[in-house]
Task: structure prediction
Amino acid sequence: MSDQYRIEEQAPALEDYLRLRLAAGLSGKTVEQARAGLPNTWFGVTLLHEGRAIGMGRIIGDGGTAFQIVDIALEPEHHGKGLGKAIMSALIDHLRANAPEGAYVSLIADGDARHLYAKYGFNPVMPASIGMAMNLARDP
Result:
């Protein structure tokens, strides 16, 4: 990672979080969702370029038995510079240093991101398990 970039060990600011999710092609979140969720970050990093947030990653979980890596996002114009690896390395290093041995760490790999995550020891859980998800929707 070049000297133009710096990783701060903190969850992104609310506005940066909302912007980076969209820039990276992740689903949008509301201000209310972000305001409720961000304080519950177990560990997070914000990647800065010339003082501006251009990437992020977070770990959520119960602090003992289960953790999930979420919100890995990087502005597209900064791809191909090893920055996604820098974000993942910071998250994994923190887990290894601070999470209890035997804790379960999961993530959802979108598209080709699975190749990056495999470099950090993540493996598909199929066929023994299958990842499942749902988005809550309010009845109209």
Q: What stands out?
A: The chain has a mean pLDDT of 94. Residues 5-118 form a domain with the Aminopeptidase fold (CATH 3.40.630.30).
